[in-house]
Amino acid sequence: MLKLGKKQTLVIVKEVEFGVYLAEKMDSEEKVLLPKKQVPKDAEVSDSIEVFLYKDSSDRMIATTKEPYIQIGKPAVLRVKEISKIGAFLDWGLEKDLLLPFKEQECQVKAGDSYLVCLYVDKSSRLCATMKVYGHLRTDSPYMKDDMVKGIVYDASEDFGVYVAVDNMYSARIPKKDVFGKMNIGDVIEARVSSVKEDGKLDLSLRQKAYIQMDEDSEFLLSELEKRGGSFPFTDKTVEPELIKNEFKMSKNAFKRAIGHLLKTGKIEITKDSIKLK
Fold it and tell me: Which pLDDT band, with edges at 50, 70 and 90, does 244 fall under?
């Protein structure tokens, strides 16, 4: 059976002026055209060729020897070439661009930006892209707690956090409590694996282990103090957690650890209502 969206090894069953026809076997009735410009030099009837099957601009199934950037069952990051009235068109390495319908978008995509998508066959038997990739991600990653990983943001929830595809294929999440600052769908991030769940999904943190992160946070807060005239108009006891999150992209606990470290090393002093450089 010929399958859209996947690479297959087929046999040349017939040569014509404009290319060759391919099929699973020499006596198969179902055939697909491989255009002449795609036919390997010296190819003959009965030779096997690996091809990818999709539909051309006339909605006919066609074969290509070109390597697409995505196949069914394998999520990939693709760039938006243009926005149209029916959706966005993505560059997937083939002559005809790939449609990402509006109903399959998880955010308002922009031309030139790249997003993680999956390939599917729509009701009209055409290949399209979707940003709804959650169910297509794997849970058998090789990563362990405290490993550093790289991934792309593919969704976000106010209740649960930010969803990330590690290596564009493994299911991961930054829990809400660990989300500091704005992260957009399509952002590529580096993070630390904070835990591996029983189902194989990963929890991530954008921050290092506490004792490592404390040094980085301390240096950052020193820099902020210098930028702000040498003082903060609050103390680690009076400042609100939400202000720390918005201003410094860290939790109140992390802020207190860093301030405590700076106080211990004699770089700051804390008054009744402020934190000052010494």
Answer: confident
Architecture of domain 139-205: Beta Barrel (2.40)
User: DSSP string spanning 46-97?
Assistant: T-EEEEEEEE-TTS-EEEE-S--S-BTTB-EEEEEEEE-SSEEEEE-SSSSP
CATH code of 76-134, in short, is 2.40.50.140
CATH entry 2.40.50.140 includes domain 7-64: yes
Q: Band of the pLDDT at 181, cuts 50, 70, 90?
A: confident
Measured distance CA(43)–CA(33) in Å, rounded: 14
Given this chain, do its domains 7-64 and 76-134 carry the same CATH topology?
A: yes
Cα separation of 2 and 63, whole Å? 10
Q: The domain 210-277: what is its CATH number? A: 1.10.10.10
How far apart (Å, rounded) are the C-alpha atoms in residues 63 and 55?
8
Listed in sequence order, the residues at least 6 apart from 27 whose beta carbon sits closer than 8 Å to its beta carbon are none
**127-147, pLDDT tens digit by residue?**
999 999 999 999 999 999 989
Residue type, 99: L
Q: Is the full-model pTM beyond 0.85?
A: no
Q: Rounded distance, CA 46 to CA 125, Å? A: 29
**Domain assignments of the chain as residue spans, ordered by start:** 7-64, 76-134, 139-205, 210-277
Q: Are 173 and 164 in contact (CB under 8 A)?
A: yes
Q: What is the pLDDT of residue 210?
A: 53
Band the pLDDT of 207: cuts 50, 70, 90. confident
